[in-house]
Amino acid sequence: MIKNFIIGGFLFLTSVSAFAGGLLTNTNQSVHFLRNPARDASTEIDAVYTNPAGVVYLSDGFHISLNNQSAFQTRTITSTFVPFAGFGGNATKEYNAKTTAPVIPSIQAVYKKDRYAISAGLGVVGGGGKATFNSGLPSLEAPVSMIPGMLTTNKITTSSYSLDQYMEGKQYTFGVQLNGSFRFTEHLSGAVGVRLNMVSNAYQGYLRNIMINPNQPAFGATYNGSALVSAPTFFTAAATTLNGWASGASSYVAGLQPIVAGGGGAVLLSNGTSAGLNATQIAQIQGLLGAAGLTPAQIGAINIQTAQATLSAASPVFTGKAAAMNASAAGTADRELNTQQTGMGITPVVSLNYNADRLNVAVKYEMKSSITLTNNTTVDNTGMYADGAKTPNDIPAYLAAGAEYKITDNWKISGGYHHFFDSDAKMANDKQQYINGGVNEYLLGSEYKIGKKILISAGGQISRTAVTDDFQSDLSFSLHSMSFGFGGAVDITENLRLNLACMLTGYSDWTKETSNYNATNQTGKDVYARTSKAFGIGIDYKF
Known about the structure:
543 residues, alpha+beta, Lipocalin, 2 domains, disordered N terminus
């Protein structure tokens, strides 16, 4: 009668990135990127990350860059699912989250001497924010919204439900990178490096106070459909009643046997007093027959032997329904999660740079970093984040190529291309199988020097995701985007530069329609949307 209703959906492995880049990779490691994202052939201090082979073109000495970025994002999931109308009367609902990361520091440092350079960088190379869904997620609500229809189908008229839900996820991957660079010839240089990636994720959430309005007074006088009541309490009361019916039916099967054996089986149950039954017993048997689904007319015409056979068949049915009700009580009980995940991995990095007068060309390749996350769970009655369990969370290989060209001594243009090999990086639940290759990014920018101390720059980035509908969910979605960054730099002294920048990103909505919405076997639709803006301030200093 009532299916085993276990609430899942706490697999909150959504990407919580506050940066530009691939699904799991951040590419904006300095304010220089915000004011002009086409930095892949940079020969300035930010080349520690973007082009390690290019740092050999810095002047001899020690260089350092200190940066902070502040990123702000919104996420909106607009869901249309007919059963949602049972909570507020509207089949379309909106779920919102804000990702706020006001302090995102990064450091790049270089020591350069003649043809050699040693450089190091520290930054947030993945994640970088917290997403909070105060009204939960559609994947959590969808199975709850099915309860009224499920009960109504089983002849317990129910039209409404309510629930309290909340989800929060924080993801940070801190990277510490060390490079060695060498200038082979006047025009060609190379670098090798390694980055230690340290992942720290945290997830909290709950699904509480599931309420419904069932109309089934047989399970209790308050269950008359007029008000919302606790779903677990209702299902528990139903199980208790059904178990009582099963016990009563079995008892009367045995109690009627002497009457049937003595030849009284043909007597109408309504005339059972003539066969030795009292009025109370007759009423109880008739009530059990009604619970078994017989109509008043059928009950009035049934004889004692047929009543006995009917009760014999009904008893295990009552027992089965009671078990289903108990399972539903457990499934609608409060759920809570509080877990942290940690892991580490190494990323080898190689790069080459070619310089010819006004043209500079560079290419960088970061190898895949295999990372396994381990749960440190303090609360989890969802059964999905067992303490000590492990989850794959690889950082994909990444190819970047770029070029810069000085049109004049004061005016430079730049371009770049990024490809992330996302489908080769292991993810939780093997979600990488739903990616056709990986993210591609196309970058273009320009900067112009005004006088001796002021520099202005601007640029754009077009990102094209390669995920499929099967990848997209309210827990993790990737969208096509276009970013525009602008800003400038001021040389405060000969050795000190101030960088200021802003980057705005617009995303293309993604609509996903399915005939099996969140495993409910019903049609539904989600529209995923995002907005993003970032601001940065930093200083470059040469000793």
